[in-house]
Write a structure and sequence with these properties.
Blueprint (H helix, E strand, L loop, with lengths): L1 E7 L3 E7 L5 E8 L6 H19 L10 E8 L3 E2 L4 E2 L13 H8 L7 E6 H12 L8 E6 L3 E7 L2 E2 L31 H4 L1 H11 L5 H5 L9 H9 L3 H25 L3 E4 L2 H5 L1 H15 L2 H6 L1 E4 L6 H11 L10
Length: 332
Amino acid sequence: MAFLGIDIGGTKRVIVIGDPKGRPLAQLRRPMEQSGDWRADLATLVEDIRRLIAETGSGSPGQPLRLERIGISVPGPVDAERGILLNPPNLPDWHDVAIGRALREAFPEFGNLEIRVENDANAAVLAEHAAGAGRGVEDLVYLTMSTGVGAGILSGGRLLRGAFGGAGEAGHLPIEWPGRACRCGLRGCLEAYVGGHAWGVRLREVVPDSSQVLARAGGDRQAVRPEHLVAAARAGDAFALEEFGRWLDHLARGIRHLVMLFEPERIVLGTIATAAGESLCFEPLRRRVARVVWPRQAERLSIVPAELGAELPQRAGLAVALAGTRVMASAL
């Protein structure tokens, strides 16, 4: 018995075969080349899955590998109940695609194969809960902190999806009013202040010529990105330190909403925050959060970096495949 995990992103896709305990047995990574026709791209994905299955084998001579379930992690909103990709922004040709049904039909030899589909933030919280920084915690929030901001939320060990599957849009919690315009069409959203895309736009507008941030971008203002600021802040650049403090202030406001709404035991932060590290990011962030929540909440809350890092894509799809109605901490 084996489980298949698929992580589909805007630039790459990862296919992993794992055992019932979620241990990866084999994997295949490829660039996500979008032809403009999702059917053709899906056919290529199916070919890669078949190749990986054939190369992995069952471990028993003459016995084919038997797939129990497929889990898929994809960006953007999904209809998890029907296995449909709705309108993932990084996959413009995959809107309203019934990927669950399409994959089931592509593998008739496995019978009525169960296909589970989750957005990447939900898949990430399942993976970190099972094999990373969220182990042993039943009330957990994972915040994606990259181009945009999203959240995967476990409440009492259960994945929170909402009535229509759209819960967890933490990036669009209001932290300023009316505030900066967000790419979602609203204003004052957390993502408009701490998301990598929005922050990069701001930095290119405000970075002074004398800052190390600009120097680290090769002197090209249009090339400035958040990682240049993080590196300059570590080196003690005054502008970078002030700007990073501003970023932390806004992030703390967003976390306050999450604490008041869900009272998690732990919040796990990925990408930008993890790259910035303990002394630059997590220690001062915890102090800021402690000032804007109730003391008893601050005492019980831990805010920690994600642990899976580059391993997340291979764990995310498997975590979706292995998760039951109630998430089991020992699944991976």
